[in-house]
Amino acid sequence: MVAPAGQVTGHFQTFQSAGGHLHNVHEYLVGMDIITDEEKPIQLATSWNVDNTGRNWTFKLRQGIPFWLDGKASDKYKQFTSKDVRHTWEIMAGKKNKAESPADWVRIADDASAIELRGDHEVYIRHKLIDLEMPFVLSEEWTFGITSLDYWNDVGGQDGYLAKPMGTGAFSFVEKVVNQHMLFKANKPHWRKSSDFDELQFLWVPEAATRVAQMIAGEAHIVDVPRTAHEELIGRGIKIYKSTLPGFHVWIRVPYYQNPTFDGRQVPNHNPNDPVRNVKVREAMNLAINRNAINDRFLKGKGMPDPVEYFPPWREDCKDAWAPHPGPQGKTGCAGGWPYPGNGDPVKAKQLLAEAGYPNGFKLKFETTLDTGGLPEMPDIAEAMAAMWKEIGIDIEFKIIEAGLSRQEQQEKKWTGSVNLTRYSLDPISLSLSFSWFENPRGFIEHQFVTDWKRKYDNTIDLKERLKMSKELGDWWKANHVTVPLFWVIPEVGVDPKVVEDYTVNQLHFGPVRYHEYTKAVFK
Fold first, then answer.
1. Which listed residue, of 116, 186, 205, 248, carries a Cα 20 to 30 Å from 488's Cα?
2. pTM, whole model, 2 decimals?
3. What class has domain 11-202?
């Protein structure tokens, strides 16, 4: 597959899907069913509960779980305990090291004293806010891979750990070669599930045609390939496996910075008159897109309409009113409708641009990334969208960049005057908004409405009120055309049936990078 956004060995250095390959090394407090994604006590916590304030969580921990090095259970670091949970929070929050997203963890607690160790096998977490999604945050869908405190100290902290990470997972780290590969060795016998295979190697290959050739030549056995290549591969005996659940939604981010930031920093090149800050411009950009054409051409019509960003159509906070236009199967509403006309409305789009004061269009930077595990078609989709915007008069400067560079621009708030195509995973609404409120250092959709909404939501425990608030947020998001929503996509991969008998798992937001201890081998 393509290289991830961060070719790193530390889960604290990256964010969700960019570090998916590291899930082979680490385990998490809360496990997820590999088929249904249901939260289950199948990893390092055996149970969990929250008190009636909605803030304080208790996690009981599994006993006798070893850390692994070089495919062997370590004699020195014999057992995972509660101190490793607190240590993991400290490194995620950047208290001992440089972390990718410390704000996500500091919002839980200001310091480690809020994580109380009740013996070796129980942890009590005093959260600053009401957070009913803590099991998700500490699950394998996020980034909280448990790291040994003793090992971290013995190898000298971050640098020593990054040279050779250690976890309780089904594989041990062996080697990283930037832009070439990452190699892991299976841990056998593993307490949860031992791999049929002795090694797991990720080959980082940016060109889709090369990946297809590797698949045909038998050089790789599970390959992230575009859907346009599926027919050829099937003709050559390759099987196509779908994720058991939709993996992510595809959408256009439309940055809308506050200036200065919440901590007084100036936003680079900030332009309060940026055209995309005009709601009519954002509506025009949505109306210019022929979603049916993109879906048919690149996704073989399999993309599911995304009514409003962050609100999947199958979740109870989706509203039929957000998707009034017939979708690929002729349905409307959350059953399968588009939020805008499926074939677009370029005439209305041009009219809106004129009403917004841009009868001759405007200049706009449009970026997307090549490093998109699970959606290899994304650069082609972006190029097609750029052409549609040019048709309504927007002068597009289109660029495909490395995901690592895009993340750096995000962190430095350099997206003024640009939009970008991305794909995000399925997260609870309170977490989905982590990029959309003023106090988050990584925020890029900093509307005051969202900031105020988030503050209120974080202090609301009543479930009915939270559901009502979610729908109110969706109403506001749609009315203001905050983003350009496209599809929900089910990841699909090519699998060599001569080597792999089965790879039926949920690839949610990662693509084919995890659960390989469950990949079934062909035995001859």
1. 205
2. 0.93
3. alpha beta
